[in-house]
Amino acid sequence: MTENKGIMLVVSGPAGSGKGTVNAMLLKRDDFAFSVSATTRAARPGEVDGVNYHFITRESFLERIDSGDMLEYTEYCGNFYGTPLKEAEEVLRSGKNLILEIEVEGAMNVKRKYPDAVLVLLLPPSYSVQEARLRGRGTETEEKILLRLARAKEEVALADCYDYVVYNYDDKADEAAAHILSIVDAEKCSIKRNDRVADKYLNS
Amino acid sequence: MTENKGIMLVVSGPAGSGKGTVNAMLLKRDDFAFSVSATTRAARPGEVDGVNYHFITRESFLERIDSGDMLEYTEYCGNFYGTPLKEAEEVLRSGKNLILEIEVEGAMNVKRKYPDAVLVLLLPPSYSVQEARLRGRGTETEEKILLRLARAKEEVALADCYDYVVYNYDDKADEAAAHILSIVDAEKCSIKRNDRVADKYLNS
């Protein structure tokens, strides 16, 4: 791995884990970035190609899946959305850490395609807190809440596929973000990301 | 691993790496501790058993080696010095992180006996800086300096056996200490130190 290359950081978490808040805190820093996703849906008024999304044709999207250029992708309402590998690698080469906020299945795909990725599972402190958070929003039907909770159970069952677990306690998203910063810092010190330590040292 | 258990942290580094300074910074914190070593040498005036060392007989020391109770040990000038496993485990159970400042060979022995140990290699920014630091002390003979540098080469050659490498830049021991704090924080979030995440979550 090149020195000073950023870390690809996958942050997953069930509904109510607060991953949006935590990731927004990290993205305020100069050394973290999102990558611009690709999509086959049409640009909405005001959306700029290369800023909001890379707007590409369905044919082009499928080609990029075939050629292995999509780190992960999903189909939603007839449109594809995905993370182009080249885009992600550009961010990493610039030295910034890349945050991918994706679901468990996507996370596993990223790890397969890019084994250097670091997978973090963000969890509410407990299932009962999560349930309270979802109900507290007051914006969703009971049916939808139950679906989200069932989905969360499936996601958490795959915890062992992640590298790290970070608990996001109430009103302490800053502490969760600090743990993720520690994880990135530690990963940069890990021997597996520092090759030829002895060679470089002795020739310096 | 028990929740809230401390991390056993082995910090090795060649002469001139500044490990004494960095470890002293960590030990100022409430959540870090040294363990008291055992030795077969006689107590010097003012030394207190159980504080400076556990003063034990040669027979007792050899028994503890045989029974696997010495995490690592060395013989120097006819006396044994070592880290009793029970002593180390008491510190960890109290929730404090334990720092063991030991040489490469000892570090490898600790990892074999206690696979949960985290091995950090602290390095001067370069070999030439290290050489300058050793000569700058002005307290050692040229012969001794050359011996230390040769020994450093042997130690650094084993970098790949460590989990992490941290560079200690001039006048920035606080940054090196901060990296080690990140490593401890990240290790506590690692999935391998958080067993049954899903079970605990779903039953909470």
Please give a handful of descriptors for the protein shown.
alpha/beta, Rossmann fold, 204 residues, homodimer, Guanylate Kinase phosphate binding domain, 2 domains, 4-stranded mixed beta sheet
At a glance:
The structure is a homodimer of 204-residue chains. With 204 residues, chain A is an alpha/beta fold. Chain A contains eight helices and nine strands.
Provide structural commentary.
The structure is a homodimer of 204-residue chains. Chain A has helices spanning 19-27, 58-66, 85-93, 104-113, 127-137, 142-156, 173-189, 197-202, and strands spanning 8-12, 32-33, 38-39, 54-55, 70-76, 79-84, 97-100, 118-123, 164-167. By secondary structure, chain A is an alpha/beta fold. The first copy, chain A, folds into two domains: 1-31 and 96-204, Rossmann fold (3-Layer(aba) Sandwich), CATH 3.40.50.300; 36-94, 2-Layer Sandwich (Guanylate Kinase phosphate binding domain), CATH 3.30.63. In chain A, the strands form two sheets. Chain A has a five-stranded parallel β-sheet, sandwiched between helices. Chain A has a four-stranded mixed β-sheet with strand order 4-3-6-5. In chain A, a hairpin with a 2-residue loop joins β5 (70-76) and β6 (79-84). The first copy, chain A, starts with 7 loop residues before the first strand and ends with a helix. In chain A, 37% of the residues are buried. The mean pLDDT of chain A is 91. Chains A and B meet through β8, β9, α7 and α8 of A and β8, β9, α7 and α8 of B.
